[in-house]
Amino acid sequence: NIHIGANSDKAKVDYLDNVVYRYSHAKKYKGFQSIILDSNIFYKVDHQGLYIMKNDEQVYSSFDSGYPIMWCTSVLKNNGGLWIGTNSGIIRYEKGHISTPFKSNKILSSHITSMERLNRDVLVIGTKGYGVLIVEKNSIKEIVNKERGLVSNLIRKIHIDNSGVIWAGTNKGLSRIDYKHNENLELFNISRNQGLMIEEIIDLASYENTIYAVTPKGIVQFDKSKIKRNLKPPLVFITRFNVNSKKRKIEENTTFLYNENYITIQYEGINYKSFGDLQYKYRMLGIDSNWMSTKSRVIQYPALNPNNYTFEVKARNEDGLWSKPVTVSFKIDSPIWAKMWFKILIIFLLLIVVYLVFIVRLKRLKRKANTDKRIVELELNALRAQMNPHFIFNTLNTIQNAINTLDKKVASNYIAHFGRLIRIVLETSKDTKILLNKEIEMLSLYIELEAVRFSNKFSFNITKDKKLSQDLFYIPSMVIQPFVENAILHGLHPKNSEELLLSIDFELTKEETIVCTIVDNGIGRKEAKEIEKLKRIKKKSMGMGITKERLDLYYKKSGKQFSFLVTDLEDESANPLGTKVEIVFPV
Q1: What are the pLDDT digits (tens) for 37-91?
Q2: What are the backbone dihedrals phi and psi of residue 343, each rounded to the nearest 5 degrees, phi first?
Q3: Secondary structure of residue 458 in the 3-state scheme
Q4: What is the dihedral of CA 404, 410, 416, 417, to 10 degrees?
Q5: Crossing angle of helices 543-558/340-404, nearest 10°?
Q6: Using CA atoms, how far apart are residues 388 and 436, in angstroms rounded to an integer?
Q7: Which of 400-409, 441-450, 478-487, 555-564 comes out lowest in average pLDDT?
Q8: How far apart (Å, rounded) are the C-alpha atoms in residues 84 and 73?
Q9: How far is residue 480's CA from residue 485's CA, in Å, rounded to a whole number?
Q10: pTM above 0.70, yes or no
Q11: Positive or negative CA dihedral for 127, 131, 132, 136?
Q12: pLDDT (tens digit per residue) in 79-89
């Protein structure tokens, strides 16, 4: 007999020779969902919990033992206890105690609908939303669901036939699963396409080659050996390829412009038993390598980036056999400004522009620098030209005075000194700088000439730092002379004294500058100005003004700051003791 459970007043029936027989002891089995018969012990589960009967007498009830109501769907012996499938997962019963061993497992703590043993180590479990679970040693080894070809993830009943094949009854038909350990499973479905007119399966049983399926409208039976798997996959064709909503001819490796990137692809699978209800998988290589499932026959890509693309689509027949992918390849080209050669060209042109701007700027700066340098040199030459006649004019006056006094020896010596001085001036006239030692020699000749002119009224001495003994140091030429001239003409000459002295000292400082100090003990600047007022001298002194301008030009040309400081020397009573001039030359 084929025993079939039913949730009715008369809860257990026998099916034999196409006739349904009902048990007479209905109350004993009323309302059970699943049972286990073990000798004289009877285990049953229903919508309230677990019941154990021995010799037709109830010896245990989970509800009566204090456990909450449990909506149970299935029961199975496992590992010395009972596994009970409930709407909140698998619970375990052993020696009067109930536990929840899979509380942390999302799948095994979900709605369990049916459980069967495949062999000693493997259990097959049906769920309400996850499909069929293959469980080995208390862990899930396989999940068979719609992604793998199962007709539905809502399992009503699991049944193992005499050849070890798994049958899963669902709300949308029947799935046959041939599972072999560590091997790929074989699966095909029996639904309306294979002649199963009522697809909702409530219970399953089998005898030899016959499968018995209970539906809401009765029992369906069929010979499993006559169910043949459709080994012919569907034919798939790409029927339309639109670019920016316009139909384009389908050609391999076609290149589209960067703005022709709104792609619509239509395809069609042919499988007569599916009546047009085909499952497809597609992917667009260049975006994602994962397959996407759909029943739609139109796929849109509204904004593809420039790249190489390959569209692939395949279809599955009613028995889960997939066709080979149909492909179409194309390319969306980059805009011209995004192409590598264009970027390189732009960079090259920018480099050329930068180089040309740099060259033009450099030439302009060189022209300006040369112009400025030439202007400074011309100004220096002009100032030297102004300086030298000024000095020569004063010297010639001295010679004239010597001749007028009829002192031939003095005049002869004076002319010799003057000639030597003129020779040095001419030799250095083209240079803006002069060796310090040469400048000291020129100053000595000049002061000697002035001393003779003023009848040796004053004496002088020139000293220098030992560090300045070598001919290594240069200073601007004809800068010191105007200060010495002022000291003689306006400081020493007007004073009546026998101890008039002019001192000149050169020192090399720690700051790497040469300081020239000129000290005279003459009448001082204040009294000299008073004398000039009394004499009503209106001629303009050229030496000091020219010297100041020359120092400014030297700074503009070399970037080195030249400076001088004039100090009036006085005693404690503010009486004038002379004048001190400090001139600073950067080395």
Answers
A1: 888 888 999 988 999 998 888 899 998 888 999 999 999 998 888 999 999 999 9
A2: -60, -45
A3: strand
A4: -100
A5: 160
A6: 19
A7: 400-409
A8: 8
A9: 9
A10: no
A11: negative
A12: 888 999 999 99
Cβ-proximal residues to 188 (8 Å cutoff; 6+ apart), any chain: 149, 175, 176, 229, 230, 318, 319, 320, 321
Whole-number pLDDT of residue 182: 55
**Token pair belonging to 442:** 């020129």
Q: How far apart are CA 358 and CA 350, in angstroms?
A: 12
SS (H, E, C) 59-71: EEECCCCCCCCCC
Residue 135's nearest CA partner among 175, 187, 73, 76 is: 76
Contacts 24+ apart (CB under 8 A), 149-153: 149/175, 149/187, 149/188, 149/189, 149/316, 149/320, 150/175, 150/187, 150/189, 151/175, 151/189, 151/191, 153/127, 153/129
CA angle in degrees (0–180, nearest 5) for 539-543-549: 115
Quick one: three-class SS letters along 148-194? HCCCCCCEEEEEECCCCCEEEEECCEEEEEECCCCCCCEEEEECHHH
Containing 84, the helix (H) or strand (E) segment is: strand 81-86
DSSP sequence for 265-329: EEEEEE-GGGTT--EEEEEEETT--S-EEES-SEEEESSPPSEEEEEEEEEE-TTSPBPPPEEEE
Q: Is 248 exposed, middle or buried (0-12, 13-18, 19+ CB in 10 A)?
A: middle
**Six token digits for residue 449:** 């000439």
Q: How far apart are CA 455 and CA 492, in angstroms?
A: 12
Specify whether the CB–CB gap between 328 and 266 falls below 8 A. Answer: no
